[in-house]
Amino acid sequence: MKTVLQTFVVLSSLRKVVRTNLAQSYLTSKNQNQQACSFSQSSSRCYNYKMVHTKCRDKFYHHRTDDGSFGQVARFPVPDEQVPWSVSLPSYKPTEFTAPFVLKAVWADPELGADGFNPVWNSLDGKVNRVSHDGEYLVDSSNRPVNKMGRTGLAGRGVLGRWGPNHAADPVVTRWKRGEDGEIMKDEASGKNILEFVSIQRKDNGEWAIPGGMVDPGEKVSTTVKREFMEEALDSTGTASENLEELKKMVEEFFAGGEEVYKGYVDDPRNTDNAWMETVAFSFHDSTGSSVGKFPLHAGDDAASICWMTLDKNVSLYASHKDMLEMVVGKLNAYW
User: Fold this and answer.
1) Do 108 and 156 form a contact (C-beta atoms < 8 A)?
2) What is the end-to-end Cα distance of the chain in Å, rounded?
3) What DSSP state is assigned to residue 110?
């Protein structure tokens, strides 16, 4: 009996070692190669997509304060070669920061250790989805989820509501750019058609972005995509609220034919060691210009401006949005 128990203990220990080594190898390869392959539920094909871990390592972490102004917190500097958790860094002391408004928000997680808050990591926790699109993430000795893409120089949640993955959805709405004669415009050198996409200018940092947003607890991603587009690009909760039913019908019809182009981690400046953004991006293309051309674009409360932006490799956008758009360009064989 004693021998059996000893064997069991040894095997259990070996399993733990194997799991740890596999996790470390995974983190090393993910970060050294800067490769984030995400998988669609309907396909086992790897997108083989380069999602760099860069914007979430800027010198300062920017955030909104309680009085509506903007502040910044210095991140602990993390060089490229020290991003992977598998690389030993005894001197690593990330800045601890969770924005005060997050601690008060009803839509956000409580602090770990709060009465009644017992999150179930890597699972559907009630209505809150704590599953990562990129597979299982580790949890540290303080019961904090660990950003599998590596160190960011900031611990806590920053301005994000959830510990671990914070899920968003991004609708990439495109059409062909046309001249005054109505003909599709082409790049002279390549002969390829030129794309335009619906872009909003964020109020918090002035950067241009895809009009996406956060997935509410229990909400389907397809519902989020339509809701966020209506709120951010059509101002359905403001100036366009009187025509809400008409807008809903237009959006339902156009968004019925979307195609998933990316699912996974996003190189977002809001990311921390313990909380990070993930998204599902869908492509909605109007080849004739007759559908989206009817949309009365109007910036919602979260946007400073909105426009049809010409798309090419020189476009500068928020987070990883440019990379998602490059995928759409590839699928449509458009000019880049």
Assistant:
1) no
2) 69
3) P
pLDDT digits (tens, 9 = 90+) for 87-136: 999 999 999 999 999 999 999 999 999 999 999 999 999 999 999 999 99
Q: Tell me phi and psi for residue 216, to 5 degrees.
A: -70, 155
- For helices 221-233 and 244-254, angle between their N-to-C axes, nearest 10 degrees: 130
**Is residue 252 classed as helix, strand or coil in its secondary structure?**
helix
Query: Which residues of the chain form beta strands (DSSP E)?
Result: 60-64, 70-74, 95-98, 124-125, 128-129, 154-158, 164-176, 195-202, 208-209, 213-214, 259-265, 275-286, 303-311
For residue 109, the tally of other CB atoms under 10 A from its CB is 23
Whole-number Cα distances in Å, 160 to 48, 69, 85, 97, 179? 27, 17, 22, 11, 42
Q: How far apart are CA 127 and CA 188, in angstroms?
A: 51
User: What is the C-alpha separation between 210 and 319, in angstroms, rounded?
Assistant: 10
Task: Find, among 108, 99, 97, the residue nearest to 65 by Cα.
Answer: 99
DSSP 174: E
Report pTM. Answer: 0.82
Of 22, 55, 51, 23, the residue nearest 37 (C-alpha): 51
Backbone angles phi, psi at 222, to 5 degrees: -60, -35
Residue 47 pLDDT class (50, 70, 90 cuts)? very low
SS3 249: helix
Question: Which one, of 35, 63, 40, 62, lies nearest residue 50 by Cα?
Answer: 35
Distance (Å, whole) CA 256 – CA 251: 8
150 contacts 27 by C-beta, under 8 angstroms: yes
